[in-house]
Design brief:
With 165 residues, the chain is mainly α. It has one domain. The chain has 6 helices and no strands.
């Protein structure tokens, strides 16, 4: 089981790396460039049009499902770590919320205004930090499992120790 989980986390780390590659080839950290990517730039040499709704919908369709499954898997594994339940809940909610903001911010920019470009940058950075953090803590959890009798109060390990199992 540890081998399977470790290999999965290697894939997740490579996914994280390719997120940065994709960002650097399509985006930048300049809000004006991000806004132009979604809203178009009529003043450019060839008058770049706004991002087509069909292309945005297709991208969202694929990403919402794929990210949902990825985050379900990562946060499900998080449940087994010996950390307090409140922290687990906060991490789960912030992971899903950040991913939704990252995906939705393109729509906000396209239809709500260029000012939402900062949301795209912030949510991308936050999501990448969360994904890397989850991969790291899950790797640590695989390499250094905590016995039930040493589990932190409010974790599955501690509950098992209290029940004698």
């Amino acid at each position: 089981m540890r081998l399977i989980l470790s290999l999965f986390l290697v894939y997740m780390f490579l996914f994280w790396v390719t997120n940065w590659v994709l960002w650097s080839t399509k985006m930048s950290f300049d809000p004006a460039q991000i806004a132009a990517y979604y809203r178009g730039d009529p003043d450019s040499e060839f008058g770049a049009p706004p991002r087509p709704v069909a292309a945005m919908a297709e991208n969202s369709h694929q990403h919402l499902f794929a990210m949902g499954m990825l985050l379900l898997t990562l946060t499900h594994l998080l449940i087994f770590l010996p950390i307090p339940l409140r922290l687990k809940g906060t991490l789960v909610v912030s992971t899903f919320l950040t991913a939704l903001l990252e995906q939705g911010s393109g729509w906000f920019i396209r239809f709500g205004g260029a000012g939402f470009a900062w949301l795209k940058i912030g949510s991308f950075l936050a999501l990448q930090a969360i994904l890397l953090g989850l991969v790291v803590v899950l790797f640590v959890g695989i390499l250094r499992p905590v016995p039930a009798e040493r589990g932190i109060r409010g974790t599955p390990q501690a509950l098992l120790a209290r029940r004698g199992g």
